[in-house]
Write a structure and sequence with these properties.
By secondary structure, the chain is α+β, with helices and mostly antiparallel strands. The protein contains three helices and four strands, in the order ααββαββ. The chain has one domain. Strands 1-2 form a two-stranded antiparallel ribbon. Strands 3-4 form a two-stranded antiparallel ribbon. Strand 1 and strand 2 form a beta hairpin. The longest helix has 13 residues. It is elongated. 4% of the residues are buried.
Length: 82
Amino acid sequence: MSVGAAFVCVLAVLARVNVYELMFHPIDRVEFVAAADLKLDKDDKLIAVKVGGSARAYPIRTMGYHHIANDLVGGTAIVATY
């Protein structure tokens, strides 16, 4: 097999790989701490969600990396995204 043909085969395989799925994988097991125990900078931003009596906040800094958080809020399945 020539070098050119091997190169084309490698490119064909890489064309099927979604690099964004590898880089920005969803958070499937979201972990939370109490608001009183959380240390945020005064300039940190949050995505806040309230369903019924339950509320969650997702830091933009974390969401900027993962982009998707699958969670259960107030018994309702949600997807927080940024």
